[in-house]
């Protein structure tokens, strides 16, 4: 028979309460974040986890940044989630960083590194589970970084909907409302989807007012729930106090989960102190005050006095043996703890202890779950999640997806400029990550010598190195080239000579199945790179124009821009084809195509030859692909800025949210992408050529190692799409 734990019994019970929602398909994940520490986020996270478990047993938990106590083997939040719900995961899978690591990396400006690793860890869980709960940070403002700063950064790059939790205790009502509104607006302004807000720890008599006011400042499409203050959940346990004080347990270690409602100092005569004892009070007294100790124990046993949670003995003083013997003979349900330090200082430390929910404290967990069920509209939250769909793609997520797509089906890429320093550095990185197979064209001895000079960690024995000047393939390649171009007047002698040109050689490798794609242009011109491809590989059926796109990784989105590298002045038909090819490229790389045909005029207001060219191109593209979201002519600001779009083109499905930007000519496109790149610091990945039968991509002669690395990834992905 299968063993069912106490926890599992209650999970089954609570899950059965919501079984009617089993068939609703929810969003893959939700990000629970807070505006500050000690907001009651744990309660909400437990409730969401249980909600997910009613729909699937394959539920994961992820806490990107943990703040583990120095004495703990595991982060408490993570441990509670895993153990209580018996999640099929382990602690190391469930986090990416410790808080101190993130503070250090942020201080060094290494935000991209943080995000890349968080995405990587999250994606591993996403593949394993049907649903993943992501619990945000408890940063407490360390290092000058706030909860909102860090959680915005993470939630945005994970691309999952957010549930904001705020605590109203200790705040004025208007102050709390303003804080919740500001936080919500910050997330929205940064294009993070917020599906719900929860106001937690609200005084019972203020619930109605808080609900009313939040409804005024937060859209009706967002789930708004109010959880009143539950005293027991706000109480720390004796266990938490013991850990904070590094105390020594003398008696009652089985009662450490007792909740502390208040604490009082036993420094007066017993007859006076007894009148000050309150329910769930923690008694704090010097260790030599036998009268207070025994009196408190007797009061706890008496039906005439409130129950106490425990006794703290200060000053490292242990009662004398006779008193110890007396205590041992008293049947008690309270722990007695000895601590170092004076009574006043210890009291201050106790007051600073923040309550947590531990996996072992079933009473607290079950109360938290019941509270969530009673006050959160689970059905509405589920419905919002089930209909949630985001089209957002951040640069970090895009770059991560490139790596994963390139690894899907390993491809062989040839780099004709193998002796260039930048090419060699990119090759070393590609080899380290084991993404693609590589061929470098050049002299092996010179390449090896340069690698040694640069101190590159690269194993050239695992990279194919060919020298077109003396390759065993030259004769075969020359015949292939001659047969392909003799109708154009090419002679055998010319074919033999061209075979030794690195661009022709690399292209012939692709034609003969020795490589899947080529990346060149770090040294050679665009024409030198693509001319052999146009002559030998040629264009895809139905494609008459080879064009290019850049993937522009801006701070908050990825835009596809074309043509910025190949066609100087395309006519309307060519421009339409460029738009269709670019839309297809966007879709292939996970970007929903919303195409803006750029011009100096928006809609029907403008006149002129160039405007008419763009208008005609738009009509041609629409006719060829009626389902494509495309708008033109349209100005750049109206294409990307929603506030401008509402004024200029309010009814457009593209304006304000264009993901594919098509420039009317090369002059405009090339200068625009470079201006954006230089002025904003955006990463430009490309150009990626479109329309060829096999992927060949051109680099700028000013390219960086990062540019080469990313272009190889693009080429490998294109090869996978053949």
Quick description:
By secondary structure, this protein is an alpha/beta fold. The chain has 29 helices and 23 strands.
Describe the structure.
The chain is an alpha/beta fold and 722 residues long. The chain folds into four domains: 28-234 and 363-386, P-loop containing nucleotide triphosphate hydrolases (Rossmann fold), CATH 3.40.50; 238-354, Udp-n-acetylmuramoylalanyl-d-glutamate--2,6- Diaminopimelate Ligase, Chain: A, domain 1, CATH 3.40.1390.20; 410-538 and 714-722, Rossmann fold, CATH 3.40.50; 545-691, 3-Layer(aba) Sandwich (Rossmann fold), CATH 3.40.50.10750. It is 45% helix and 17% strand. It contains 29 helices and 23 strands. It has a seven-stranded parallel sheet with strand order 3-2-4-1-5-6-7, with helices on both faces. A six-stranded mixed sheet has the order 20-19-21-18-17-22, sandwiched between helices. Helix 3 (76-85) links the parallel strand 2 and strand 3 (95-98). It is elongated, with a radius of gyration of 33 Å.
Structural descriptors:
six-stranded mixed beta sheet, 23 strands, disordered N terminus, Rossmann fold, elongated, 722 residues, alpha/beta, 29 helices, seven-stranded parallel beta sheet, 4 domains, Udp-n-acetylmuramoylalanyl-d-glutamate--2,6- Diaminopimelate Ligase, Chain: A, domain 1
* Gyration radius, in Å: 33 Å
**Total individual domains:** 4
Structural class: alpha/beta
- Output the number of helix runs: 29
CATH class descriptor of the largest domain: Alpha Beta
Report the sheet with the most strands, covering strand number, pairing sense and barrel closure: 7 strands, parallel
- Compute the number of strand runs: 23
Taken as a percent bin, the fraction of beta residues is 15-25%
Q: Helix proportion of residues, in percent?
A: 40-55%
Please name the CATH topology of the largest domain. Answer: Rossmann fold
Shape-level CATH architecture of the largest domain: 3-Layer(aba) Sandwich
Please give the order of strands in the largest beta sheet.
Answer: 3-2-4-1-5-6-7
Low-confidence spans:
1-26
Instruction: Report, as a whole number of angstroms, the end-to-end distance.
Output: 53 Å
What is the 3D shape?
elongated
CATH superfamily of the largest domain: P-loop containing nucleotide triphosphate hydrolases
What does the average pLDDT come to? Answer: 85
